[in-house]
Specification:
The complex is a heterodimer of chains A (110) and B (119). With 110 residues, chain A is mostly beta strands. Helices cover 0% and strands 45% of the residues of chain A. In chain A, a hairpin with a 5-residue loop joins β7 and β8. Chain B contains no helices and 11 strands. Chain A binds chain B through residues 1, 31-32, 34, 36, 38, 42-46, 49-50, 53, 55, 90, 92, 94, 97-105, and chain B through 45-48, 51, 59, 61-63, 95, 97, 100, 102-107, 109-112.
Chain lengths: 110, 119
């Protein structure tokens, strides 16, 4: 199984802050990395797919990237936090059909 | 706009079978997408259960594969999930969803349905 480790598990931030969430894969996953936002009582919402592609309708303050050449480290950045961005964020690897694993989640709190 | 709606019993007895159906509207279940089930235990993270293509091809979470079956019903534009031999650990909100073919991004989700395993 490919394990996905997100950090931090939670963070406190203020409106207007730049926020960065990291996701590390236990092996190379190329760019098969997706990011989701989930608010309490709601289904997750796709933000970023293919590591850096912005889903249609998602604000441009959200961005995704991969670092290094081994395709194991990925970052979700919110350039300027809005009040509606307080939520839990999950990464997901989709490199293998043998289990599309999610990270443990990062809760962004005020 | 694609819409997915889960339906099924909200309470299942231990050792029983959990059965859910997902009705799809706004897209054909025969399109070039995967149709997925994902669950979330109360207060915990997301767990991918499995997926099915319109050809009937399936992929399952290795930790659940012995207990899970996903089927597609083209005539009704819906797909289904069965989880056998359930325990309290299977208590969760179950989501059905549509997943893209290239990056397996899950771009449309149902609202989710809570299934509780209890006697």
């Amino acid at each position: 199984d490919i394990q996905m480790t997100q950090s931090p598990s939670s963070l406190s931030a203020s409106v207007g802050d730049r926020v960065t969430i990291t996701c590390r894969a236990s092996q190379s996953i190329s760019t098969y990395l997706n990011w989701y936002q989930q608010k309490p009582g709601e289904a997750p919402k796709l933000l970023i797919y293919g590591a850096s592609k912005l889903q249609s309708g998602v604000p441009s303050r959200f961005s995704g990237s991969g670092s290094g050449t081994d395709f194991t480290d990925f970052t979700l950045t919110i350039s300027s936090l809005h009040p509606e961005d307080f939520a839990t964020y999950y990464c997901q690897q989709s490199y293998t059909n043998l289990g599309l694993t999610f990270g443990g989640g990062t809760k962004v709190e005020i | 706009q694609v819409h997915l709606q889960e339906s099924g019993p909200g309470l299942v007895k231990p050792s029983g079978t959990l059965s859910l159906t997902c009705a799809v509207s706004g897209d054909s279940i025969s399109s070039t997408q995967w149709w997925s089930w994902i669950r979330q235990p109360p207060g915990k993270g997301l767990e991918w259960i499995g997926e099915i293509y319109h050809t009937g091809s399936t992929n399952y979470n290795p930790s659940l594969t012995s207990r899970v079956t996903i089927l597609i019903e083209k005539s009704k534009n819906q797909f289904s999930l069965k989880v056998r031999s359930v325990t309290a650990a299977d208590t969760a909100v179950y989501y059905c969803a549509r997943t893209g073919d290239t990056f397996k991004e899950t771009n449309f989700w149902g609202r989710g349905t809570l299934v509780t395993v209890s006697s």
